[in-house]
Write a structure and sequence with these properties.
The chain folds into 2 domains: about 90 residues, Alpha-Beta Plaits (2-Layer Sandwich), CATH 3.30.70; about 120 residues, Alpha-Beta Plaits, CATH 3.30.70. Helix content is about 25%, strand content about 35%. The chain has 5 helices and 11 strands; from the N terminus they run βαβαβαβββαββββαβ. A hairpin with a 2-residue loop joins β8 and β9.
């Protein structure tokens, strides 16, 4: 079954609302990243003015649930109105695995050849370096680690009635398409990620890629 990556960039503090709505619509969980919007012009950005705190929520869902999940995310993001409710986008997922469970393969033939793939890995805090080391051995050049947090679900453990939401690391790696299989498999097969609930990995074709400063 094919998978889709859904991502929403919303004002700070709205990520949990979006996540809860998505979970009710059938998303199996998600990840929230802290971010910052850019100032409306270069002068304000230079002065450190005009920037806004943001949160990025993303989840991987079955393609059959995409429309329903996207619909509730849109509604939740716009619930309080305003023109700055955020943005939402979706992308095809070439591969997907939930660590500690049998692999789900969503790779399909694509009419348009893609030279680069994005490999995304979401793991419990502290495991991103292990994933990156395995990826390098398989041919990846480097990656970016972002601190994140998981989103609570009804069956999550609680402490005095408050859901325990584990800290996460999000690792993003751009690799040539011919190395993507090897990199993805190297991460998937790490012994430290065999425990159920230790994270997920996915990959998606990149339409355009260029190094900056070259």
């Amino acid at each position: 079954m094919s998978q889709r990556l859904i991502a929403a960039i919303v004002p700070h503090g709205r990520g949990e609302e979006v996540s809860e709505a998505a979970n009710r619509a059938g998303a199996g969980g998600g990840t929230i990243l802290s971010a910052q919007g850019t100032a409306p012009n270069a002068v304000l950005q230079l002065l450190g003015l005009g920037t806004t705190s943001r949160e990025i929520y993303f989840t991987v869902v079955d393609a059959t649930r995409e429309a329903q999940v996207e619909g509730v995310v849109r509604a939740a993001a716009a619930a309080r109105g305003g023109r700055a409710a955020g943005v939402i986008f979706a992308a095809d997922v070439a591969r997907f695995v939930r660590f500690g469970l049998p692999e789900t393969t969503a790779k399909e033939e694509n009419a348009m050849e893609n030279a680069t793939e994005l490999v995304g890995v979401i793991v419990n805090k502290g495991y991103a370096e292990d994933a990156m080391a395995a990826a390098r051995k398989a041919g990846a050049g480097g990656g970016t680690v972002l601190p994140a947090r998981g989103t609570a679900k009804p069956d999550d453990a609680t402490f005095f009635g408050v859901p325990i939401v584990p800290e996460k690391d999000t690792l993003l790696i751009l690799v040539p398409e011919e190395r993507a299989d090897a990199v993805f498999d190297a991460i998937r097969d790490l012994p430290c990620l065999r425990e159920k609930g230790s994270g997920i990995a996915f990959s998606a074709p990149v339409g355009r890629f260029a190094p900056l400063g070259g």
